[in-house]
Structures are given as C-alpha cells and as structure tokens.
Design goal:
alpha+beta, Rossmann fold, Dna Ligase, domain 1, 5-stranded antiparallel β-sheet, 14 helices, 22 strands, binds glycine
Length: 426
C-alpha cells in the first residue's frame, strides 16, 4: 500500500506514525512533512493547493490512498479532485467540509436538525450597525466568530461589551481577517468544560476514537493568549458514559444523518468540539479533520491496524471492521518556542529526542522541526514537538510524557506543567 499524507504538523507525524506501525509496511509519502516524518517515509515538496500537481504525484507514484490532515485543502476541494479520479481519500468533500469552513453554514445546519448549540445570529459585511445593536442587546460575555477559516484566530470570546463591539468592528468594518471575517456569527457564551469527539465515518457507518481534551491557552491554569494547543489527553474523564451516549444520540448521529439527507454525505474524520453544559453536551464547533494536538493522543490509543481503518473510511467498508482501542490513557505535552504564540525565534538546535523516544511508552511527535544540511534537528515553528505517552491511567501517562519533556532541550523551549489538570481533578 502506497499512502500520501498531506500536511506538516504534529497531527500528520502522528498519522504517519500510526500507519507506519501496520504489519503491512505501507510506503509513506508526506507532503511536505517535517523533521520527524522523514524517518517514516519520504517528505515531498508538494503544494496541496495545486490539485493538478497532487493528482500528477498520485499517478506517478501509484498512490493507493490519500490522507488529508489540515482543513484548508479539504475546504478547497482536494478530496473532490481525488475522488473524481477514483483515488481513495480520507477527508470530506468541500460541500461536507463547510461544517468547518463556514460557521454560518454549520450553525444553520445545527438549527435545521435540532442539534444542541449556542443561540446565534449571523451578520454579513454591510450589516455592522445591526451586529452592534445585537451585541448591545445581548450583552457580555458573548462570542464573536469569523465564519470562514482563520487558522485558529476566528473565535473571539468577549468578556466585555466594549471588546465585543471592537471584535465585530474589526471583522465587519476593518476586514481584520479578510474574507474569512466578512461574515460573522455572534453567539451566546456557553459555560462548562470542553471535550472533543473524533468520528471516523465512511459516509454510512461510523466509529468513535476516544474523547479528548486539549489546552488552548499558553499559560498554566488556562491563562494568557490562545495557541494552536499546548497539550492534550484522552480519554477525557468529563465525557462520562452517559454524556457520551447523549452526545452520540443528540449530536453525532443527527449530524451524519443530516449531512447524508442533505445530499452531502460526510466521508472522513469529523471533529466535534463540545461544551459540557448543565443542559448537556452542546456543539462549540465542528472541524472537518483530526485535531492537533489531539491526534497525538487519540491515535496512540488505536489498537486496530491504522492502514485498515483509514482504508475502510476511504472505501466505505467501516461496517466490516472491528475497531478496537488500547486500554488506559494517553497524554501529550507540547514544547514550543519562546515567545509563541507571539513572534518567536526559529532555528534552535534540538537535543534529546532519541533519548525521550526510548523511554517506556513515550513517542515524540514533531511539529515545527526540520533537519538542516549538517543533519542537526532544528526548530522551524511555534509549536515544535508534542511529547506523547501512554499509561495505565492519566497520571501514569502524564508522568511518562513529562519524563520525555525533561530529556529534550532547545534554547528557549517552553511548555505547560499542568497538562491534564482537569482530568486529574475528577
Ligand atoms: N486543537 C484544536 C484543533 O485542532 O482545532
């Protein structure tokens, strides 16, 4: 089996790692990949936005399966281009990826299908005064979201009315996020604890990976600015058996059925971000892909051969597959460059990854890394590594992950020391 993975982050390293475990020994290509993926396959300089180039590569390299990691190529229709050539692909069509690519679409979809989520209104460019009237009427706290893709910067939780007015003006009048923010969704603030579900679906059947929780803020105690995610753990204890059953019944199944009934069957991996409120689980957002860094904790818990699982999603054979999970927990701690999520310095030499990788249960996933001409591993991004570990419970997984972090060193490396605190408190 020859597999092309699109993407360059920790998520894609974890996907490559899971596929590489397969006894079928797949040949992997990662476009563009990073300093970790090159040990598992071939990193290729391929622009996912150039569909003709991707199709050409797939034909030349006789690729059997494509796994698309990030959201942008999915929203841009890469899966459609591949399916039109009968190439099996893990990733929804552009029409289905609107669940992430257009918050206005996803909120209307949830309303049509009675899926629990925060109350909202949508405003478009030219409707600034109506949007301002609405936030003044609702008051703070309130959430202002750019409808389009905004690389994690599109959801603004406004604690005060002034900040809500600013956010609406920045997006609708000043074009802060360009086209992505030219339509905004303004929604009620939901109180509770967040958790994520990852639904593997072939368009008809579905299987759930373990629930997970990530840590979005840079600072301990969940303080400071938002990041791409500073760590994660799975399963998330907040997602009890009862809550999971409720989320499946009220969110997962109506979402998949609704998409199918509207003529946009969802085939790929659906990330359902939930808020566990006093009224039960409500949808914060959908993403049309696996999470980062959640992938680095959910895929290590997958016991079934990942080549079979991904192949079944792409070929509509999930019903034939018995997907099983490892017992216990998995946790990961992200090591980032000093200054992240603001401006940060790149090019720092990274030491100790091999030592960490040899520790029991530990697996280091690379995100912003590359190997230079001298063979030295260097930092190339804000989030540099995710040190993951499995254990018989969350405490054991965290202890192992932090032992891995201790073994690794690069100038200015920062990490949070309280990953998993909510799970441990339960
Ligand atoms: N960790 C959040 C995300 O992947 O969107």
């Amino acid at each position: 089996m020859r597999i092309l993975i699109i993407g360059s982050g920790g998520r894609e390293h974890a996907i490559a790692w899971a596929l590489h475990q397969s006894p079928s020994r797949p040949v992997l290509f990662i476009a563009p990949g990073n300093g970790g993926t090159l040990h598992l396959g071939t990193n290729v300089a391929l622009d996912a936005a150039d569909h003709a180039a991707v199709l050409g590569f797939v034909a030349n390299e006789r690729i059997d399966l494509v796994v698309v990691g990030p959201e942008q190529p999915l929203v841009d229709g890469l899966s459609d281009a591949l399916r039109a050539k009968d190439i099996p692909v893990v990733g929804p069509s552009a029409a289905a990826a609107r669940l992430e690519g257009s918050k206005a679409f996803s909120k209307d979809f949830m309303q049509r299908h009675g899926i629990p989520t925060a109350a909202y209104r949508t405003f478009r460019a030219g409707q600034l005064s109506q949007a301002l009237d609405f936030v003044r009427q609702e008051g703070a706290p309130i959430v202002v979201k750019a409808s389009g893709l905004a690389a994690g910067k599109g959801a603004i939780v406004c604690e005060t009315l002034v900040s809500a007015e600013e956010a609406v003006t920045d997006l609708l009048e000043d074009g802060l996020l360009g086209e992505a923010g030219s339509t905004v969704v303004i929604e009620s603030f939901m109180q509770g604890e967040e958790a994520s579900l990852f639904v593997l679906t072939d368009g008809s059947d579905y299987v759930l990976l373990p629930s997970a929780q990530d840590h979005k803020r840079i600072g301990e105690g969940d303080t400071g600015p938002n990041t791409g995610g500073m760590g994660a753990y799975a399963p998330a204890p907040v997602m009890t058996k009862e809550r999971l059953e409720e989320a499946i019944k009220r969110v997962v199944e109506p979402t998949l059925t609704g998409m199918r009934n509207e003529g946009n069957p969802y085939q790929g991996i659906l990330y359902v971000g939930l808020m566990i409120t006093t009224e039960g689980p409500k949808v914060v957002e959908y993403n049309c892909r696996l999470g980062d860094p959640e992938t680095q904790v959910v895929l290590p818990l997958l016991a079934t051969d990942a080549v079979e699982v991904f192949g079944a999603i792409a070929s509509g054979r999930l019903a034939d597959l018995d997907v099983s999970l490892h017992p216990g927990a998995c946790a990961c701690v992200v090591m980032a460059s000093a200054g992240y999520p603001g401006s940060y310095v790149k090019g720092k030499a990274i030491r100790g990854v091999e030592v960490a990788d040899r520790l029991e249960g530990v697996q280091v996933f690379h995100a912003g890394t590359a190997v230079d001409a001298e063979g030295t591993l260097r930092s190339t991004g804000g989030r540099v590594l995710a040190v993951s570990a499995r254990g018989h419970d969350l405490r054991a997984a965290l202890d192992r992950a932090y032992a891995g972090v201790k073994a690794i060193d690069f100038d200015g490396a920062v990490h949070r020391r309280d990953i998993g605190h909510r799970g441990l408190d339960r």
